[in-house]
Amino acid sequence: MSISAYSREELEELSMVEVAYHVLKERKETFSYTDLLNRVVELKGMSEEEKKRRISYLYTDLNVDGRFMCIGNNVWGLKAWYPIEKIEEDIITAKPRKKAKSTDEDDVEIDEEFEDFEDEFEEIEDELDELADNEDSDDFEEEDLDGFSDDEEEEFDEEDEETAEEDDELS
Asked: What SS3 class is residue 109?
């Protein structure tokens, strides 16, 4: 059914995406998003305020609805117009971003930095594995809260006693 066959009331009842579908189907040509939006708003008799409020809804519906296809640069068409084999050929591609020129030396330098980072990461991982194994072993000796084992604490106590005795003799 042609879009012109609909009455004003019927167009107002249709969703924006349905009106967009009929516009594209009838005209058999692609539209930029803004042109398509303006045509839909005109046909539905929407106010400028309502257009501003609902501008994103149409865009979202076009993306979600399987009948539409963005062929690049925000230009929309119907998927039915494009045979699967030709889709990649017919799609308008956006200008590719310019890549910074790099020399082979830059690439080698980046690879070496990555390898250094990778080696460092592996060393840390090995150390963590060793620590985990040590904590899991049954031979682990418990240390006091002050960081000394019981044997070390006894040695320091004896040294402290000797120092105290020497101090007493000097006084």
From this structure: helix
Block means of pLDDT (10 residues each) for the chain, length 171 residues?
Answer: 78 90 92 94 92 93 92 90 64 53 59 65 78 64 54 59 66 58
Angle at 133 between CA 128 and CA 137, to 5 degrees: 150
The C-alpha atoms of residue 153 and residue 142 are separated, in whole angstroms, by 13
- Rounded alpha-carbon distances, angstroms, from residue 167 to 49, 65, 155, 158: 94, 92, 19, 14
C-alpha 90/C-alpha 92 separation (Å) is 6
Distance between CA atoms of residues 16 and 170, nearest Å: 102
pTM beyond 0.90, yes or no = no
3-class SS at 70?
A: strand
